Amino acid sequence: MSTPPLAASGMAPGPFGGPQAQQAAREVNTASLCRIGQETVQDIVYRTMEIFQLLRNMQLPNGVTYHTGTYQDRLAKLQDHLRQLSILFRKLRLVYDKCNENCGGMDPIPVEKLKQKNQQLKQIMDQLRNLIWDINAMLAMRN
């Protein structure tokens, strides 16, 4: 998987644009990789649904006269979808490997700790919401 060059992204290298800066700018962060992985999974699901749709519409050659051209077209479509599916799985594997490489030294955060942090953030947001409401009420009373 290649990343676009700096000029294509709209960012100029600037005066500090040495080889190390360019390499750092070309590296894709893990969040972007996860988004690419999610889109790839969605493409895989879509392609798989199309494959099943093609298979459902194909008639089995059970002695019934069947147009060879139609059969060949559907077979070519099916083979193309399977080839694309294989490419998507390889792409997903590359994204997965790169994510694991980027997160190699990181320890996973336990779910309980995430829930606790989430609860703390909710409390802070509620406090800010109440503070803003109190300020608005005081300003309304002054007017």
From TrEMBL:
Localization per record: Nucleus
A GO molecular-function descriptor: transcription coregulator activity
Keyword field contains Nucleus: yes
Keywords for this protein: Activator, Nucleus, Transcription, Transcription regulation
A Pfam match: Med30
Superkingdom of the source species: Eukaryota
Region (Disordered), start-end ranges: 1-22
GO biological process per UniProt: positive regulation of DNA-templated transcription
InterPro entries: Mediator_Med30_met
Primary location: nucleus
GO CC terms: mediator complex
Record bears the keyword Hydrolase: no
Function: Component of the Mediator complex, a coactivator involved in the regulated transcription of nearly all RNA polymerase II-dependent genes. Mediator functions as a bridge to convey information from gene-specific regulatory proteins to the basal RNA polymerase II transcription machinery. Mediator is recruited to promoters by direct interactions with regulatory proteins and serves as a scaffold for the assembly of a functional preinitiation complex with RNA polymerase II and the general transcription factors.
Protein family (similarity comment): Belongs to the Mediator complex subunit 30 family.
Protein name: Mediator of RNA polymerase II transcription subunit 30
Gene designation per UniProt: LOC111146663
